[in-house]
Every structure is written in structure tokens, then in C-alpha cells.
Amino acid sequence: MKKCPNCGASMDADVNFCTNCGTKLIEENINTSVEKTTRVEPVSQTPAQPQRMRSTSDRSVKMHNYWQWLVASWKRPTGEQSAEKWYGIATILGEILLFVLGISVALNGSISGIFGSTGGSFTTQVLFELFLFLALAGLGKIVGVMFGRKFIFQTKTDIYTLINKIAQISGINAIIIVVAFVCCILGGNNYGFAVLLAIIALFIFDFACILFTVKGQNEKRDSFYGLLISVGISLLIVLILIGIFGNALKDQIQSLISSALRF
After folding, report:
1. How far from chain centre, in Å, is Cα 240?
2. Cα torsion at 210, 212, 217, 221 (round to 10°)?
3. Residues 131, 135, 137, 141: what is their CA dihedral angle, to the nearest 10 degrees?
4. 10 bridge partner residues
5. pTM of the predicted protein model
């Protein structure tokens, strides 16, 4: 059966014209078929963003947020601010690395000035051991803070939160270490000032550890004894590290000086 598209009348399949109004049924069916076959699916207009552009943008945002956190730590060292887990670790390790590089530049410059350029190569092994010693010593002090706070407040503090807080309180060290590094590059009479800045940075880090050990509310036990526990654990860990790394660093430096004296 065919149905006329004009008047709606039904007729046999072999009829080509509507018996009621005369409409060509074949042409209507063809037009209908053409309309059906020429229907085009919409094309998606949202191209996929390249993965490389997204990753670059993400890194830029992360570095911008980190810089804002660092600037805020200079303005309000004890203020409350959110931070990603890696902020404190990156800050402390970056300061240690820059400090070690400054020592390398200063010693190479001093040895070269005394013994000539051929004897002024400060070995990579010594620098690595010094970096490792300072990083572990800093971690030991942070562990001391953790146990001290645990004694005082009877609550567990997340290690990343702890590191971020200490890095925030001692955030001014980033500026101090950069200035000390520049002094090491300049050389000459600036070495003494660089040493002074390094000592100041060390005291600021220790003070940050002491301050955060007792900083908080709802003390369960006296903060004085918690502070003693923190300092005691930190001192014990540092002494152990000195026993492990001290002789190795001493032998490396003596070997370096002996090699320089032969030139």
C-alpha cells in the first residue's frame, strides 16, 4: 500500500499517481528518500586541547601558587594559609642545595686563589655528603618537633603539615640564603658576611622548630617538657649524623687539601 503525501489517501503499491488528487507518488517517495539520505550528522566543534599545553599550564599555576605561599610566609610567618604537600620540602631542600653550592663556589675560589686553578676542584662526593647531612639533620629536628607536639597536645600532626609550617615560619631563610650565595659568588671579603648569614639562617630554622613545638591550644601536658623532648631528640639525631658523616667529610676535605698542596 502507498499513501498520498498530499491528501493522505491510500492506494495499491503499483499505482504511481494518486487516484484522488493526482499527486505523483513515485516523486514524493524519492524526495522523502532523498531527505532521509541527505540528513547530515552535526560535527563536533570542540577540538581536544593538546596534552603538552595542559601540562605546561598546570605547572605555571602550581609555581604561581607556590610563589604566593612563599611571599605570604614572609609577610606573616605564623599566619594560617593552605599549602600543597611539597611546598615545605621544596623550600627547605632548595635552601640547603643553594647553601651547599655557595660553599662549593667559596671553597673553589679560595683554593684556586691559594694553590692555582689546577688545585681548586671541590669534589662532588663531598658536596653530596654535605647536602645529605644537612637534609637529614633538618629532618631530625622536624622529627623532634613531632614528638614534642605529640607529648604536649596528645594529637598526631601530619608530617607534611609539620614541614610546611616550619618552612613557612622560617620562610625568610630563602632570602637570606640567596644573599649568602651571591656573597659567595662575589668572593673576597664577602665570605665572612656569607658565613654570618648562614649562621643566622640556622638560628631562624631552629627558632621555627621551637616555636611550632609549643604553638597551639588545648595543651594536655606542660609545654616546657615537650620542648625538652623535642630538643633532646633533635640533638641526639644530629650527634648520630655527625658520627656517621663527620669522619667521612673530614677525610674527604683532608684528601682535597693534600691534593691541592702537591700543585
Report:
1. 29
2. -40
3. 160
4. 3
5. 0.74
CA dihedral 47, 53, 59, 60 (to 10 degrees): -100
**Cα pseudo-dihedral 94, 197, 199, 243, rounded to 10:** 40
pLDDT in tens, the chain (263 residues): 667 777 776 766 666 666 666 667 654 444 444 344 445 455 455 555 667 777 777 888 999 999 999 999 999 999 988 899 999 999 999 999 999 999 888 877 776 666 555 444 556 778 888 999 999 999 999 999 999 999 999 998 899 999 999 999 999 999 999 999 999 999 878 888 999 999 999 999 999 999 999 998 889 999 999 999 999 999 999 999 999 888 777 776 666 656 555 54
Determine the Cα angle at 214 with ends 208 and 218, to 5°: 145
- Here the cell at position 262 is 702537591
C-alpha cell at 42: 552535526
Q: Which amino acid is at 126?
A: V
Considering only CA atoms, which of 8, 173, 155 is closest in space to residue 88? 173
The vertex-91 CA angle with 89 and 94, nearest 5°, equals 100
